[in-house]
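Journal club side-thread
Mid-discussion, someone asked how the predicted structure for our own chain would compare to the paper's figures. Pasting it here so we can look after the session.
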Amino acid sequence: MSDYFLGVDGGQSGTTALVGDAAGRIVGWASAGPCNHVAAQEAQAKFRRVVGECIGQAATRAGMGEPRRFRSACLGMSGGPDDKDALLRELVQAAHITVTHDAMIALVGATGGEPGIVVIAGTGSIAFGQNGKGETARAGGWGHIFGDEGGAFDIVRRALHAVLREHEGWGPRTALSPALLESASARDANEMLHLFYTPEWPRPRVAALALMVNAIAEEGDPVAAEILRRAAQDLALLAGSVRRQLWAEEELARVTWTGGVFNSALLMERFRMLVELSENASCAPPRHGPAEGALMVAYRAAGLSPILDSVASPRGA
């Protein structure tokens, strides 16, 4: 019977499962909705369904028969593993199971398991790093109310602030106003604000409007462009905080990134410039995605270090 390995990235925006064989080939994959909340009984049921179906689809695509038992599995969860550990151990059958946070698998994937720092900016944001001694540190990641600076939700929140200021007469005119109103199908800023407080506009849906903010910035709107510059600065500050916690001033640290926010060319260019000018750090693209990082952790827990075949994986799924 073939050995199979499982890596799962469970985040605020979606869930990705990868199944690999003993040679490092990715032979099964699937994507599903978000799975970061388990506080209520209804949320736990949704969590089990989303994660279970995602893993099941990846296993089926890999050609696994029943019972589906993995040699090793790693599951990285947004919001931390503590409240999800027991649920995941019920869902997954494996000789070795690692349940960790999504920042760890993002770091392993982005650096290929080497020391460094990863800045994650999707719906939310966090920076996480590990040095050559195995010491780890984080900055940010405190949620959409008290943190997540530079993440997609924060970008849209700042855009909404700009629209409200223009609406009330104490902010500059911006093309964000008609664009946001149209996106929300709202008559005015007041109606739009109240819509964003309803269940019909959960955080991922609001955060998705960051794409529109970026498009407006690329068209030359100074307000939108400044929002993206501030987001880049916040993300660079998170990276700098982690670097100072883990590396001496004279040591060079490798910084990489992951998450949809970095698809913005304007934000990406400024982020790289700030990191390399302000810190003793080099900035390089990620080698693999978070789900691939989870799969790498699964392999290593079983004592294996194959060269991961990322060609077949659905990066960004």
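Post-session note: Strands lie at 4-10, 15-21, 26-32, 69-77, 93-101, 116-121, 125-130, 136-140, 253-258, 281-283.
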